[in-house]
Amino acid sequence: MIGRRPFSERRNPPERQQHLRLHIEPFIGRVKLTDLTTAHVTDFLNRLRGADRSIAMVRKIRTSLRTALEFAREQRLVAVNVAAAGRRKRSNGRHDGDLPFKAGRDFPTKAELKLLIDNAPDHWRAFIITAIFTGMRASELRGLPWANVDFENRVIHVSQRADCYAKIGPPKSKAGWRDIPLTPLVVNTLRQQRLMTGSHEFVFANRNGNVNYHTNFLKEVWTPLQKACGVGHYEFHSLRHAAASLFIELGWQPKRIQAVLGHSSITMTFDRYGHLFPQQDLADDMKRLEAAIGAV
After folding, report:
1. pLDDT tens digits, residue range 189-230?
2. If residue 142 lies in a helix (H) or strand (E), which one and from where to where?
3. Which residues 6+ apart lie within 8 Å of 234 measured at CB?
């Protein structure tokens, strides 16, 4: 099994050990190496994204898995490195996982977002609406206390999150500490949610008042909801990308989007969403440049 360290400490630095312990073992650690297939790897990566791992983190974990399986192949524990086999290179030199985000493929279109909102179960409607209009990570939503919802100023203060074990901790990075403005729809929906949850500490608590497990939500709510709406199979994290596209459509500046999404750098924002920003006509820009200084 992958969790039994089938490769040496020399090939298993601390970061890779962490990837194995925290990400790989919980998802596919019980699968025997000889039974592992490309389909397992694909499903594993999709589940990672649905569990609120960032794109950068998923790529690192995929690299760690691929390295582990390559060592296993060298030791003749497996015949093929199925993690390497699942990474296809396209004609433009990019890999499958490196394509720019696109509505209808990587995140829901506006029409699909409306379907998801209209058909969401009552208990989860606020959760989905808040995700769409704030871009908050699932872990941040699950760990959100009512004390951090400022109805008067229409702002959510992000200062903590709930991990996959429902344990409360600080945001992913320093940039994760942030304030997010709320639309009237989100404010009204959260007011209704407040009436439903009563005295619970967390905004999106389960019926016992405790933090929800994200895997339960994906299995019992998110997947059935998408099937009922007839939309494509999207990871829940895709709502974060949908929010970013809406912010860009509104004309928000990249720095503001970076702050609201909690990206650690503006480079991350541009790397993920730069292609969604309006492309200017360079020829017209050059003409305006000449006119600005009165050139003849």
Report:
1. 999 999 988 789 999 999 889 999 998 999 999 999 999 999
2. helix 138-142
3. 106, 107, 108, 226
Strands 168-169 and 178-181: unpaired
Sign of the CA dihedral running 166, 167, 173, 176: positive
Superfamily of domain 110-276: Intergrase catalytic core (1.10.443.10)
Q: How many CA atoms lie within 13 A of 104 on its CB side?
A: 1
Continuous H helices in 175-237: 184-197, 214-217, 223-229
pLDDT tens string 84-96: 754 444 433 334 4
CATH number for the domain whose boundaries are 2-89: 1.10.150.130
Rounded Cα–Cα distance for residues 218 and 27 (Å): 14
Residue 213 tokens, joined: 């497990």
User: Looking at the DSSP assignment, which residues form a beta bridge with residue 181?
Assistant: 155
3-state secondary structure of 179: strand
CB 78 within 8 A of CB 31: no
Residue with tokens 């500046």: 253
Q: What is residue 156's DSSP assignment?
A: E
pTM, rounded to two decimals: 0.67
Domain definitions of the chain by residue range = 2-89, 110-276
Residue-wise over 14-29: b if at least 16 C-beta within 10 A, else e? eebeebbeebbebbbe
Rounded to whole angstroms, what are the CA distances from 46 to 51, 62, 115, 174, 269? 9, 11, 22, 26, 22
Name the strand (E) or helix (H) holding 181. strand 178-181
